[in-house]
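2024-03-11 09:14:02 DEBUG pipeline.ingest accepted 1 chain
2024-03-11 09:14:02 DEBUG pipeline.ingest length=95
2024-03-11 09:14:03 DEBUG pipeline.predict start
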Amino acid sequence: MDIKKRSAFPFTFSVALANGIVGYVPTEAAFDHNGGGYETRLTSYSNLEITAGRQLADAGLALSREMTPSPVPERPRLDRSGTSWAYGNVPPQVD
């Protein structure tokens, strides 16, 4: 969420747990005395230092600053002139 908040791009999507990676990078708050929670212990999948999440976010944001956001495209205008769609609007058949 920090990456999305600090990004210069109007749309920012972070991808996690991709390409066979099963590790988890907890926030620094997860390590404090009130944090606890998910995988804050060293394991074979999570043996990063406590500030690793912030370091990864900062590095990703630094790389993104080398790019220029393009303008957000406008939605196409819907032409509502003319008649409404009549598909399915068929009167009953009379024999």
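2024-03-11 09:14:41 DEBUG pipeline.report The two ends are 65 Å apart (CA to CA).
2024-03-11 09:14:41 DEBUG pipeline.predict end
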